[in-house]
Give the backbone structure.
Amino acid sequence: MSEVLLEKPADGIAVVRLNRPEVRNALNLTVRDLLAKHFTDLGNDADTRCIILTGGDKVFAAGADIRDMVDRTPIEVMARRDLWKPIASCPKPVIAAVNGYALGGGCELAMHADIIVAGEGASFGQPEVRIGIMPGAGGTQRLTRAVGKFRAMRMLLTGEPVTARDALAMGLVSEVVADAEVFQTALRIAKTIVSMPPLAVMQIKEVTLAGQDASLEAAMILERKAFQLLFSTTDQKEGMRAFLEKRKPEFRGR
Ligand code: CAA
């Protein structure tokens, strides 16, 4: 069976499921290649409107595969770097459904998502320092932007994980639910997103992410331009007319 499974549980929703439970879903090169491929394909697929990324109900991912990395040369490690790009630049909303450990590259993978739903028993950490390296896929950057310097440094320099509840308090996850409800909660959120006008959804994602790294003034211009652009869509006319006519809108993605 493939080490990354692709499922379509409902219209417009794709599930990307890590499937290496025997090694806690460690991210080897095959998994990373498959993730890059699936995210590229789903990003380009007009029928996919929201993606759920999960490792199943026991563990999200225990990080990069240490066995795979132990004897790598810097040149070999460099060749892998771009495999994260298709996930980071995916234009469709991504929801991480996290049960169990999200460590190292697993925590970084979760942080590539737009929404993180965590189970009560989940834990998040960047333990790379304990094995002689440091995070290499956003752990020092996305984590710091999410939780601030002092909480990020605490995690990065000690390698100690935080619980799902602590992660919620820090702003590292969107929501904490009972372990058994993680996937269903993610699915419910995905269904809500799929019922929204897709062009507006994609503009919101693009502008929110692009604006994070721009000055407030430049980001506000980006926002205003995208806002104006949406007035060229039939979904804007439909959404507003439906509200005024007190009926449910029928969005067509145009
Ligand atoms: N890479 C390779 N194999 C791993 C792994 C990893 N990251 N994590 C777990 N495994 C393997 C173990 O070697 C073990 O294999 P064997 O059965 O062949 O011995 C199997 O998975 C089960 O692991 P444990 O017995 O350790 O399971 P546990 O439930 O007691 O502990 C754990 C789980 C806390 C996640 C522990 O396995 C662990 O600490 N793993 C390593 C976490 C880590 O250091 N991650 C960072 C990796 S570096 C990185 O991610 C770089 C980056 O930023 C891109």
Observations:
- The chain has a mean pLDDT of 97.
